[in-house]
Every structure is written in C-alpha cells, then in structure tokens.
Design a protein that fits this description.
Two copies of one chain form a homodimer.
Chain A (H helix, E strand, L loop, with lengths): L6 E5 L3 H12 L4 E5 L11 H16 L3 E10 L10 H16 L7 E11 L6 E11 L15 E3 L2 E2 H12 L1 H15 L1
Parallel strand pairs in A: 1-2, 1-3
Antiparallel strand pairs in A: 3-4, 4-5, 5-6, 6-7
Chain lengths: 187, 187
C-alpha cells in the first residue's frame, strides 16, 4: 500500500462511527485519526457529491488525506425520500410519521446507502458507495441500532432486531468501506 | 445610496423570481443582473447560513456584490419540517403526502420564510429575512402560485387562491426584500 495512506484523518463528529471504522482500518494497517471539524455539507439529490465536497474541503484545509462518510435511506415509493436529508427528517418526523407516509403503499422497497469520500490535498475526491436493500416494515420492531433501523426489514428481520454486530457485517457502511480498502490496497 | 450597490448580481436559476426582483430593485435605482451560476448550497437547519454561504462563494468568485435568496415552509407540528429542504420534499412527496402527515394534527400553524443574503467580495455576508404566518389547509385549494402555495392558508384563503399578484404584496420574499432595500438606502 502507498505509505501516504497509512494515516488517514476521518472527519466525523460521531464517536461510535469513528471507533467502528478505526478498528476495521487498523486491521489493514491504516491508522485513522478523528477530526470533529465542522466542514460544510452541500445539498444534493444523492450522497456522492455531498461526501466528495466535504472531503475536498477538509483535505485542502488540513493538508492531509481525509475520508468522510455520508449515509441515508432511500424509499422507492416516496421517490427516494428522505435520501440525503435522512438525519434531518428522522429528527423532525421520526419513524411513526414515516410509517404514516407509507401506510397505503404496497411497494415497500428501500435501500440504505453509504458513500465514503477520500481526498488528498489539492487532488480530486474519490467516492466509494455501498448499499443494502430491504423493505419498509409496517411497524417499528427491535430496539437495536438507531435512526431508521427499526423500520428497515432485511430478509424478515429489521436492523433494529438484528442488532449492531450483525448489521456491521452486511451493512451499506461496511460495503462502502470494503470498496475503499480494496482500492487502497491496490495503490 | 452607496454607488457600489447600484449594480447587483442576483444568483438564481429561476427566471420568474429574477424578473420579479429585478422590477422591484429597478424602482429603487438598483440594476439587477442575473447569474445562473451553480454555487454550492450547504445543509443547515435554517435558511440564514445557507443563503450566506452561497452569497459569499459567489461574491468571492465573481468579484462583485451578489445577492441570493432561499425560501422554505416551516410547519410547527412537524418540528419545522420541511424547512430548508422544502423544494426537495415538495418534489419527492408533493402536497397530498404533506397533508397526509398533517391529517391528525390540530396545530396547523406554519410559516413561509425567505432569507436574502448579500455579500461584497472578501467581506462577510449579511442576511435579511421575511416571514408570513398562516395555517396548513386540510386540502389543496386554488391553482395559483407553485409548490406549497395551495396548502398554505393565509387569513382564510390559500396562496394558491390568492394568486401571485396579491401574494407578492404580502409575501415572505417581499418582506425580506423590503428589509434589504431599507438597509441599502441607508448606506
């Protein structure tokens, strides 16, 4: 691996997310350093341009290689809502109101998506995406995970029921991270 | 008025909005020039930082005084949803689904808000906000206006029923613009 990538700053305010990713990267010989810097997130219809913009802003500001991630849930019957604004909408509406929106929908298809953007200073950002497909449940089930996990049904159980440990082996974030690591190992 | 403000670039892709504001500014001796440049809009819980960031990005890039505006509808029972993401949510959900979210809500209070940000190159942006208060109707009424206008009840009639000409005399956008002009005249 390119020694330039042996130390990466991960810009996130989320301590849990950082620990999870730090442990995975460490097993590949990559040291992750948390930066809680408040870099701008732009508005866009999908996650790639959002993560890419933040990664470039942080890399140019800090002068070191940087990764950021952004995640969301995209519900097909709602034309991809809440998508890039998943956290805002979870905060404002909560799961019961999302279920109300879906009450009369027979198409329950949805996917979680994570995009990891990686950027070196004064270079263009690269993005790596991972998705996991499931269905919007008819009620909240399980108290594991967070956010939309209790209404996201993956092969008959919700992410709320499956819990974080199982979820981390199949999740959109893990899949995006695997692609990123695969790319790094080739450099 | 400071002659520096006699020519302002208004960054907007919306031709109708530009014509409306151009006419009003002209009556105060200010020439508005449209720029359709695609400057970043950031994510934030309210409109001021969004408009301010875009105005500064455009002013620093173009080297001239710039104004931008940003608008949204904030529904009290939904904790300010859809707020800064009003256009995205209007596109994805539409008015019938917003009415479905409000079906069981007795508190119908909502307000439209516009923020105009003005920025000179290499200076800090200023913001001017205007709001208009109303209620979320129980059904769409009227086909004037656009977006959420048919479900926004202002003293018994929706903005969809009142039409653009009346709306422009009381609207959030007009109120923000009035504050901006008042400020400019003092310079």
């Amino acid at each position: 691996m390119n020694p330039a990538f042996e130390k990466i700053v991960f810009v996130t305010g989320n301590a849990g997310k950082f620990s999870e990713i730090q442990a995975i990267l460490a097993s590949f010989g990559v040291e992750a350093i948390q930066n809680k810097g408040d870099y701008p997130e732009i508005q866009a219809d999908d996650l790639e341009p959002i993560a890419a913009y933040s990664a470039k802003a942080a890399a140019d500001d800090l002068g070191v290689p940087v990764m950021v991630d952004d995640s969301g849930i995209f519900i097909q019957a709602l034309n991809g809502f809440p998508g890039p604004y998943s956290r805002f909408i979870e905060d404002r509406l909560g799961n019961p109101r999302v279920l109300l929106l879906m009450k009369n929908e027979t198409n329950r298809d949805a996917y979680f998506k994570t995009v990891i953007a990686f950027c070196e200073p004064r270079k263009e950002p690269l993005t790596f995406s991972g998705t996991v497909e499931g269905k919007i449940a008819f009620e909240e089930r399980g108290d594991g995970g967070f956010g939309f996990d209790p209404i996201f049904d993956y092969n008959g159980q919700t992410f709320g029921e499956l819990g974080a440990e199982f979820k981390n082996t199949v999740s959109h974030r893990r899949r995006a991270l695997d692609k990123f690591i695969e790319w790094m190992e080739k450099q």
